Amino acid sequence: MSATEDSDMHSFGPELPAMFDGMKLAAVATVLYIIVRCLNLKSSTAAPEITYQDTPLSRYLLKFCPLLTKEYIPPLLWGKSGHLQTVLYGKMGRVNTPTPCGVRKFLPMHDGATATFDLFEALRDHSTGDDITMVICPGIGNHSEKNYIRTFVDHSQRQGYRCAVLNHLGALPNMELTSPRMFTYGCTWEFAAMVSYIKQAFPQTLLVVVGFSLGGNIVCKFLGESCLNEDRVLCCISVCQGYSALRAQETFLQWDQCRRIYNFLLADKMKKLILSHRSSLLGMNSSNIGDADLNRLYAATSLMQIDDRVMRKFHGYSSLKEYYEKESCVHYIHKVTVPLLLLNSLDDPLIHQSLLAIPRTLAEKKPNVIFALTQHGGHLGFFEGAVLFPQPLTWMDKVIVEYTNTICHWVKNQAACQGNGYQDMQDMSTSQQSTGVTLSG
To answer: So which residues are the catalytic ones?
Structure first.
């Protein structure tokens, strides 16, 4: 080796450690940047954006329901990520989940199906002294045994509410179908049967209607289908629904916010649920589903394919478009006249932001509607907590009960002051209309 080469190596050698240190720092900086971006740590917390009409009822609600106007603070390290909120809800449901004690009821339907719901009695008297029942419709493929439902029911019971929770047709494990159909995106038959049972079994009870995700679509469609369905209903709360399946189908195929991945995972869940009832669906003479339909199901990679190949055929829809048009609440929700709280999260990875124009426009035009949009919360997450570990009760659990309590006391106070019945108070609360208002936290 020449003296010149030896000299070059000695002069270059001291630079190597510094070069490697620089690469390490760059790698660490890159990882930290990715973590900050993925966890959305730079996003600020805020109060929900509230869209409403300025009426006596809305002013009363915003005064006595402070959770709607107060800053929602998710867990510091991961709570600002809509994906983590959604995944934790999907995998864990809730933490320290209680086990409320209820009674399962079976309701024969006109087509041979057997609807079921679980009934949970209140654990104390309601603060108004009235008998009030929450009629609850869970999300897609869910039932009363899901952790988020159990947590919400336990909280509601402790606030003086009886709870009735629909078990979606075909969703309960180890319960066979008695007719060749399952629950669908907007079929209200089973929910209507549960509500009818509650009204007959408890003639003095008033109703609070609650729907989560797909359940939100069902309950809003149910109330809008007939004014008779609003009889004895105090209010309705819908959480994290998409309002229009027809508009949502295109967004659910996009890779933005990983919706295509969520679509695939939900489709896989639905496939397993449908195929677990294969013998029941095929073994009845009145079935609209054939062996070829279920065989094609194996290749489905999206909810839209499953809806087209199987779900729409339960009710004889001729096309997927007709199925989505007829089963979406967007064509019925404007007919709802009882106080209606529509709650969504801006970072919900399942609900495209374009769909949020539907509830916002409705709240701007209808005096009975309040639309609350949080910055964070994901899909049915809304966890609260200090840094890492979430609390057993979520912001969603608390705001539903707080809103309901406020409505109950509004009705009670108005009736006491004016000597009117409940229906008169219901009419008065929605008759005074002013300009639309949007509050941003």
So the answer is: 213, 348, 379
